[in-house]
Amino acid sequence: MYKDKVAVIMSVYKSDNPIDFNVAVNSIIRQTLKCDIFIYQDGPVSRELKSAINRFRKFNNIFIFVSEENKGLAYALNYLIDSCLLNNYQYIARMDSDDISHKNRMSIQVNFLEDNSDIHVVGSYCKEFGADCSLAEKKLPITHNDLLNFSITRCPFIHPSVMFRTSIFYNGLRYPVNTKYTEDMAFWFILLDLGYKFENIPETLIDYRMTENTVLRRRGFDKALSEVFIRFKYMIKFKKITVKNVSFIIGRFVFHLLPPNAIKYLYKKMR
C-alpha cells in the first residue's frame, strides 16, 4: 500500500446476496483509478456468501476482516477506518455490498477533491434500481450551504456514494454507535457542526440497489424517535428553526410509523 491511494470500505453481513456482493466488489476492482478495498464480515454468514468473500482473498489489494458476532454497520465502518489509518491513504470512500460503482467514480471524486481543497466530504447522484419506487436519477443539493439547509429534514448524501478526506478521522472522529439506525445521518450532523464542508458532484456515479426491505427498513418507532431527536437537536443548534422545518421533521416521524403499503406509496410519489 502506498501514499495517496484510495481505500474503499465495505461491510457485509448475513442478509447480503453473494451475487450482488460479487458485483459490488468487482465494480471497485474495475475502477479506472486503482483502489485498495477493505471488507468487514460482520458476524456469521451463509456458506455461499462466505465462499464469495473468500474468493477475493487472492487479490493483493483486498483486505478482509472477520468478526464472529454481528456488531452493526457503525462499528464495522469505524473498524475499517481505523485499519485504513494504519496506512497512508489520502482518501477513504464508502461502498455498500450490493451497489455498483461506475468505473470512473473514484477518479472523478479524487479529481474533485484535488481541485477543491476546502471540501472534506463529496458525494454524487445515483441511479436506483430493483424496486417499483426506484428513481432513474436521484439528485441531491450540490453546494455546501444548500446541503446544510437540506440536512435539517433530509439526508445530504447517498451514503455509499461518499468519499472522505482521511484527515477528518485523524482527531478520532468516527460514526456514532449510540444511535438507532441513523449512524450516517448523525455523523453528517457532527461533521457539519465542526465546520467540515460538503458537496455533491452532479453526476450519477453509483447504481443504488433498492428492494422492498430498503424501504421498509425506514419503518418503526425506534427509527422514528431517533431521527426526530437528532433532527430537532441540530435544527436548534444550527438556528434553522422554521415552520417548514418543524413540519417536515414531524412529517418524517409520522412517515416511519405508517403501514408498509403507505410507506411504499409515499416513498415512490413524494421524493
Automatic annotation (TrEMBL):
<feature type="domain" description="Glycosyltransferase 2-like">
    <location>
        <begin position="8"/>
        <end position="131"/>
    </location>
</feature>
<dbReference type="GO" id="GO:0016757">
    <property type="term" value="F:glycosyltransferase activity"/>
</dbReference>
<protein>
    <submittedName>
        <fullName>Glycosyltransferase</fullName>
        <ecNumber>2.4.1.-</ecNumber>
    </submittedName>
</protein>
<keyword id="KW-0808">Transferase</keyword>
<dbReference type="InterPro" id="IPR050834">
    <property type="entry name" value="Glycosyltransf_2"/>
</dbReference>
<dbReference type="InterPro" id="IPR001173">
    <property type="entry name" value="Glyco_trans_2-like"/>
</dbReference>
<dbReference type="InterPro" id="IPR029044">
    <property type="entry name" value="Nucleotide-diphossugar_trans"/>
</dbReference>
<dbReference type="Pfam" id="PF00535">
    <property type="entry name" value="Glycos_transf_2"/>
</dbReference>
<comment type="similarity">
    <text>Belongs to the glycosyltransferase 2 family.</text>
</comment>
<keyword id="KW-0328">Glycosyltransferase</keyword>
